[in-house]
Every structure is written in structure tokens, then in C-alpha cells.
Amino acid sequence: MFQQVNPNEVPGVLVANHAPFTWGATPTEATQNSVILEAVAKLAHLTIQISAEAPCAGRTLHDKHFLRKHGSAAYYGQPKNKE
pLDDT tens-digit profile of 20-52? Predict the structure, then answer.
């Protein structure tokens, strides 16, 4: 099933049977996002090697960390520009 991605919130995706895609405002930022995506994929791979039965993090934990940066009550990261 296709899920639409907001490129401002998710700077990279893994595509089945294809290479990953990453992007950023600059080539340097896109490269940094590639390095981060590779590190996260490596952690997932190592987790599966340790325990093939390892559960996913779950929606509650995902939402907690995603929304603290991107939600309406975001509190993580750089302060928003106040104009």
C-alpha cells in the first residue's frame, strides 16, 4: 500500500527492491540524511540478527518521537521562526 510522505518531515525512504532515496535543502544535508538512514537500517539489521522475533517499536513510541519534532505541540529541535 502506498503511503504519502511529507518530504519536510521525512527526509528519506527505503523502497522495496530498490535503492534508498534521501533528500535535503542542500547536497550536504541530503548526504547527511543518507548517512543517518544507513545507520538506522544497520541498527534494524543488527536487531533482526540478534532476535528475528524482535517486535516493532510500536505506534505509541513512534508517535511520541515523531510528534515531539513535527506535531502541533512540537518541543524538540530548533525554535520556529517568529516573524
Answer: 899 999 999 999 999 999 999 999 999 999 999
* 6 belongs to a structural domain: no
49 CB-contact burial (10 Å; exposed 0-12 / middle 13-18 / buried 19+):
exposed
- The total number of structural domains in the chain stands at 1
Residue 82 lies in a domain: no
Angle 77-81-83 (CA atoms, 0-180°, nearest 5)? 165
Position 4 in a domain? no
d(CA 38, CA 72): 29
